[in-house]
């Protein structure tokens, strides 16, 4: 599973918005990963975070979009990635992880993603927030999408997008 990647929620949000400043970088990285045969995964946590930002009002730091368009985007993820389901083992591992790494506050969400990676055996996380996962460097590899592309100004399209 060395060529397996959990895709962070911030990546899912950027690939769904062509007008996002990070869209090209994210799109290029996903295209490269898919071309090299990498397995891409998402979790329930990713989808919950995606839904939260997508439907949260813009004045509350969200996109202010509807549930219908969130559904459409999520179906696209489901078509290009595999779902990594939670389990009882994930709960036990998460409890151990938050204790051992002294996780507090909002960082528990990142710990859930790391837990999924450990339970399912995914060594890599594609994320725009590599520093948020630095504490876990002994158990996972956080990779920025920029590391996969040579020319971020090029245009491609990994999955069809809505323009909303």
Essential attributes:
164 residues, alpha/beta, Rossmann fold, 5-stranded parallel sheet, 5 strands, 45% helix
Strand content: 5-15%
- The total count of helices amounts to 6
Computed Rg: 15 Å
Fourth-tier CATH superfamily name: 5'-nuclease
User: Quick one: CATH class?
Assistant: Alpha Beta
**Model regions low in confidence, pLDDT < 50 over at least 5 residues:** 159-164
**Which sequence of SSEs, written as H and E, runs from N to C?**
EHHEHHEHHEE
Proportion of residues in helical segments = 40-55%
CATH-derived architecture = 3-Layer(aba) Sandwich
Briefly note the structural class of the backbone. Answer: alpha/beta
Give the integer mean of the pLDDT values.
91
What is the molecular shape?
A: globular
Number of domains: 1
The counted number of beta strands is 5
| Amino-to-carboxy terminus distance | 35 Å
- Summarize the main sheet: 5 strands, parallel
The CATH topology assignment is: Rossmann fold
Major sheet: order of its strands?
3-2-1-4-5
